[in-house]
Amino acid sequence: MIRMGRKQGMITAFAKHSWQICCARDRNMTLALTVAMMCLGTLLANADEGTQSIRFTKDWRFTKGDPAAAETVDFDDSKWNTVRLPHDWAIAGPFNPDEDGYAGKLPWKGVGWYRKEFTLDWPAGSRIYLDFDGVMAFPQVYINGQLAGKWDYGYTSFRVDATDYVNLSGKNVIAVRADTTNHGTRWYPGAGIYRKVMLEIREPIHIAPWGVCITTPKVTDDSATIDIAVQVENHKPAEVSSKVTFTLIDASGNDVASASMDGTIAPGDSEFKQTLTIADPQRWDVDHPHLYRLTSELIVDGKLADSQATSLGIRTIEFTADDGFHLNGRRVQLQGVNLHHDLGPLGAAFSTRAAERQLQIMKSMGVNALRTSHNPPAPEVLDLCDSMGILVWDECFDKWDRTADRIHGKPSLQEHGERHLRSMVLRDRNHPSIIVWSIGNEIPDNEEGVTPERVKLMAEIVRKYDTSRPTTIGTCFPHQVAQGVYDSLDVVGWNYLRRYANHRKLLTEKPILYSESASTLSSRGFYALPLAYTKTDYNPGLQVSSYDLNAAAWSDIPEVEFDLMKKDPFVAGEFVWTGFDYLGEPTPYSHEAKSSYFGIVDLCGIPKDRYWLYRSYWNPEELTVHITPHWNWPDHVGAKVPVFVYTNGDSAELFLNGQSLGRQEKGVRSDRQANLAVGKQFSASSTRPSFEADLAGDDDMDSKWSAENDSPVQWLQVDLGKSESIKCIVIEFEKEAKWYGYELQVSPDMIHWETVARKPVSDFPQWGGSTASIHKTDIQARYARIEFDSLSDGNHASISEFAVYPDTAQSMYYDSTYDYRLRWNDVTYEPGELKVVAYKDGKQLGTARIKTAGEPAKIRLTPDRTRLDATGDDLCYVLVEALDKDGVLCPLAENQIRFQVEGPADIAAVGNGNPMSQELFQTNSRRLFYGKAMLIVRANEGHPGQITVTADADDLEATSISISSNE
């Protein structure tokens, strides 16, 4: 039970203010200033004694199920579990191996109850509110047995006015019922009160929730105009005299502007408006995210009734149709990622430190933008983005159906959109990091889908509350452009495969964002041989190779997207799907796996190989030299093991056991298999003007042969000039290969033809697919020919390249990889040391080396930080690795590691990044996945001291590390 009175309220209120002031600064500085403000409590008692903000997260009781009368005051909850908020009831498991993997195989569906007892000691007239950052789903909030409020979307924040239901002097009981039964989702949503709750106590006259609105309509190098609007609530029956003061403080603590205004406040809602002007403003930017603090004080009858501190950044934004995105007058290429809201092994239960770590890892990779897919994030995420210089696409919904908690079209889109877009925009509008509001994602034009009228409705709701940023949507339906669906939006986001091409033709004046790109797939530490021949050539063993050559059928590998952004500078930039693996959506093994393969970083935050590819291109000022794969291939001695290097250099030399394997340069395809058909004589059944048969053999994927009409009876053939040994024929079609049915034939003399392959038209995969067909052969021939016999509706015979090889070969789709990574495709494996020396502009840049490891012999523990705050929320991520006796990482180790934590801390979760693993997250051991795992330690609240973490395993030498937890 917690007891709250006026003296404690004063201290807590100012502790909150100090956090708001300093949330953009160093975390230790925040703590120090909080303590300092608390020490000033006696001096400030009269100024704010009627205001209190309490983090309402401790000592809750929880049960899964729906017991009768659980909302009543005298209900016996003594056998329920004691939990701390934020809380995700499903993340503890167990996993259901028979469940489809779309939502993580976890038990998130059902009903859960939370209860908490607390005591108030406040005078009559005090206003009592409960602010929920997020509850999954359909929460009903009871105070002392009475329904005080409810909400109908699991991802938006809401306030419950508890004033009429609480005992201001005595015991109270809050009960919250969460019901996920009817929630629709395409990923793991979590379950329960998964974000923080605040108890807010206010005077009868106070600043409204999210009631301060700040804009910067005019910004130059010399000055900035800051417009302020403050909403005030008067719960008294008569008007009162008042004064509102505003003080603007810079990052150094200096007052740079102030103003005040007198007036009267009538019962109900009132608004105060003021304008400040400052000289020589410090701009908020991705490289220098300067923040100011505005303090708004409400004085009623000569006494301070309320105050609020709001961080703000001074900057200008502009999306252009032809030159992308501009921040403070200069073009900034958006290098963004999509992130779902779960935090891997922690589930949906929000943790500021876990989110901070995610963003730090992304920022180091070169990320400057975040899309909050597909819902508003926890508010702390936006605080972090403000302080770190990360631009934000703030998104409210996925679809407008059950995923938005609209059941059978109820409530109406207007009512639902008004409620939740208002929540998002009012809560988030003062964050300088936010550059665009999104009303949805990939919404089809079905019964609950998009129409021009519905899109306009949603966009206008956003503009009602903020006109300082554009509105957008993420979409993948090019046909909707001609229907006028997006005419009312300011910007349109497009997902995958350059689907924005039709937009560019028809909406030439409307800016474009690439809202989802890549969707490359990989499992950290796993490598499959031979290399993939096409992007959808997946390994049958339920892991995806980290050679970074596989993507979802509807998407592409990173280099294809890099090329696209170079080719189309009118696009503001890309948001990669996704920065981190997440629970659910485990394409391509949708039934078997529990978590995704999309992430650039695995579920635990361990970078995959392509992290270093992105870093080398997006963060070129920082040294990157990374070798792929590992060098433990006992079954491949004497066989070919390709080696890739990711570096911000332009070339590199590779050494195996001291012997040079040659130097490769970016942009040079010297190691690619030679195409025997290049420059040879082609002929065809028919041709369209400017699309002659020879264009199918010019080694250029941007040109093509096309038949003159859509008749399926067409053919194309090549004369190699002489008989050749043919081991592989690769056909690169204009569109997805699934749409073409044909026979592939070869001949030594144009008289005797042999059919070597047949392929019918197909509708698989459902979305997208490779444009290449790979046919392995072992034949001697001079002529090769494709005869079409069927085409899907709307297609005609058309081939970009008809390639013939004397050995197995990849699709020419992978040609772009030679521009961004360095490839040695024919390294003969032998154990030892692989070393690379990278160069830039002819000068040595850096080196990297990997070694063949022996048997696992010991454990290495590497904490991400060694000093924690004893807040009950701070975390330490400890990387766990197996080493051989010489200290070399064992990349194939899968030992079961046991953990013990001594001192004022607990194990928050364990994980290893394996999408197939169904080991519990909340336990004290974990099997290594390709040599690595992660232990997450949480410091206890109010108990500083030394923490000792020990790891041991059968047949491995145990090890320990120390972490300190501080006041």
SSE diagram, text form:
Blueprint: E1 2-5, H1 6-22, H2 27-39, H3 41-48, E2 52-55, E3 60-64, E4 81-83, E5 111-121, E6 127-132, E7 140-143, E8 146-150, E9 158-161, E10 169-179, E11 197-202, E12 205-219, E13 223-234, E14 240-249, E15 255-265, E16 268-279, E17 292-300, E18 303-312, E19 317-319, E20 325-327, E21 330-331, E22 334-339, H4 352-365, E23 369-372, H5 379-388, E24 391-395, H6 413-428, E25 434-441, H7 452-465, E26 471-475, E27 492-495, H8 501-506, E28 512-518, H9 558-567, E29 571-577, H10 609-618, E30 625-628, E31 643-647, E32 651-656, E33 659-665, E34 681-684, E35 705-706, E36 715-733, E37 740-747, E38 754-759, E39 772-791, E40 798-805, H11 817-820, E41 822-824, E42 833-840, E43 843-851, E44 858-863, E45 867-869, E46 875-883, E47 896-902, E48 905-911, E49 925-927, E50 932-939, E51 945-953, E52 956-966
Parallel strand pairs: 1-5, 22-23, 22-29, 23-24, 24-25, 25-26, 26-27, 27-28, 28-29, 45-52
Antiparallel strand pairs: 2-11, 3-4, 3-5, 5-10, 6-9, 6-11, 7-8, 7-10, 12-13, 13-16, 14-15, 14-17, 17-18, 19-20, 20-21, 30-31, 31-41, 32-33, 32-42, 34-36, 35-40, 36-39, 36-40, 37-38, 37-39, 42-43, 44-46, 46-50, 47-49, 47-51, 48-50, 51-52
Helix pairs in contact: 1-2, 1-3, 4-5, 6-7
Task: Describe this protein's structure.
The chain is mainly beta and 967 residues long. It folds into 5 domains: 50-202, Sandwich (Jelly Rolls); 206-312, Immunoglobulins (Immunoglobulin-like, Sandwich), CATH 2.60.40.10; 349-520 and 555-580, Glycosidases (TIM Barrel, Alpha-Beta Barrel); 681-809, Jelly Rolls, CATH 2.60.120; 858-966, Immunoglobulin-like. It has 11 helices and 52 strands. The strands form 11 sheets. Strands 22-23-24-25-26-27-28-29 form an 8-stranded parallel beta barrel, surrounded by 4 helices. β14 (240-249) and β15 (255-265) form a beta hairpin. α1 (6-22) packs across α3, α4 (352-365) runs parallel beside α5 (379-388) and α6 packs parallel to α7 (452-465). The protein is globular. Mean pLDDT is 94; it is low at 1-48.
